[in-house]
Here is the input.
Amino acid sequence: MTAGSPPRVLVDATSVPADRGGVGRYVDGLIGALGKVTGSQIDLAVVCQRTDVERYARMLPGAEVIGAPAAVAHRPARLAWEQTGLPLLAQQLAVQVLHSPFYTCPLRAGCPVTVTVHDATFFTEPEHYDKSKGTFFRSAIKTSLRRASRMIVPSKATRDELIRLLDADPTRIDVAYHGVDHSAFHLPSDDEKARVRARLGLGRSEYIAFLGAKEPRKNVPNLIRGWAAAVRDRSNPPALVIAGGQGHDDEIDRAVAEVPAHLRLLRPGYLRYADLPGYLGGALVAAYPSYGEGFGLPILEAMACGAPVLTTPRLSLPEVGGDAVAYTSEDPDQIAADLAALLDDEARRLALAKAGFDRAKEFTWESSAEVHIAAWTRAAS
Here is the structure.
């Protein structure tokens, strides 16, 4: 990099899953914003799975977008390629900074590396992960803290946890809040709401919405138990819809088996991306009683769709929700009490929906991209 020239940055997007959950939303949002704000600040290149080349080329006109070997679609092969093929590619492209957006990075990259660490719950909530996954990510985070020039985290809570638990250097951590795509997550029309109800077979029935992975940390079993207790004696009980990818929480099936027969619980799996505004914005309440999040993108997306949100005050969630969401605990009895109070108070639900929608406007991918660019510039220098 010559004096005054923008640093050449390679973003490794090969970890983005086909379902566009979690890391996919982050990388897609970041790259889309980089295509709008980079200007002459950085010289950007992206390596991704071959199925994503066209998508990212549209987002980044003029940038170099490289398809990785087809084998990286499988995680073991991707991790092996990350240690060998990715550093070679970085060398071939003569990059000054390599950005790894999902915990892991090459041990010998040949250039400064920045890494996004999304949360520290592998250390604070180890019981909510299977043993092999927890061990892998704890090791990956420790390695990245040693190897990376800078760490990027999505919240102050995650930054503080890394400092507290792992003695991370606070001067090498940049907080870049996630954003929300306000064109994709918006106040839904009546037609959008009706279309989702029809797809789910709900008719005119009201419902409580959950959207996320079925991992133990998301606390879905206690949500199911709390919902059942809150609505079982109502004359027209709202359904509970548990949408999102499959996970490894066996307790969910046990909680489902306890649900009284007259209540309706739906598990539709993944919903179409275009249906999410109608799904979230059409719910009486979007419930997300997590044990803790590094950011909490599902509650931000629900807020952007005008849904009143019920969540927990754990880790980063108050940074996202502020005073614009309702809070509960992880306990099913408390979830039941707080959910019932919301269901009985339409005025509060409407006030939360408006406050959440207004607050969601403060979170943009363009702001996140600016923090990333600043971090890469510092790493390059």
